[in-house]
Please model this.
Amino acid sequence: MLIDIHCHANLYLVIDEIIKEAKNAGVRKIISVGMSVISLERILEISDKYDIIYPALGIHPEEVKMNRDLEKQLDSAIDIIRKNKEKICVIGEIGLDHHFIKEKELYPFQKEVFEKMLSLAQELELPVNLHIKGAEKIVFDILPSYSIPNINIHWYSGPEQYLNMGIDRGYYFSITPAISYSPAVKNTVLKVEKEFILLESDGPVKYSGKIGTPAMIREVLNTISKLKNIDSKELEQQIEKNSQKIFPKIF
Model:
């Protein structure tokens, strides 16, 4: 069984076709991660409608730029997450971004939002799904201050120093279809032990112009299998175990 642990399922225009393709590829569970305040209710709605989709709620670091009203809306977003704590399996997608977000004046508020999300994960005893692009050091400095069941680093492509630190701390790393062309993602796969690897589409993000979908994680699995010289069936079973360990609520 394949599990897509990081997908923005609420952003597909025709989700039924996406789910059909995913099932045909052997994908049985899709975690739909939140980004914006406005997305939270939609994610809950589609997870109620489709038994293959499981909700993850959180505020993405880019939201500080995209939503001018975030400061006013943050408490109500946190209330939505708290009220649905039994339904959600992870707090995400949360983190810091100093790569795509260039406006340094936004960084203090971004950090404030991130720390509120970490506090929420600690309170609700849920794992976190992290976006840390360009802010690896700051994130890794912050994380030990919180008691969180498990930590997944989504699409890691940063400095090897922090990759090694994450490995030493027992963090999980989810691998995207970018493995087909990204040396950094390939390096992550080669360095991370199979017991800490997860699969994700991050759909509908585009890969070489092609819209990402959960069905693509079958090819991601096959590529990892070749890179690590592990039988694909054995690897599939191992990654299923990994997913079960970090996201027990979806099993």
About this structure: The longest helix spans residues 107-124. The chain is about 45% helix and 15% strand.
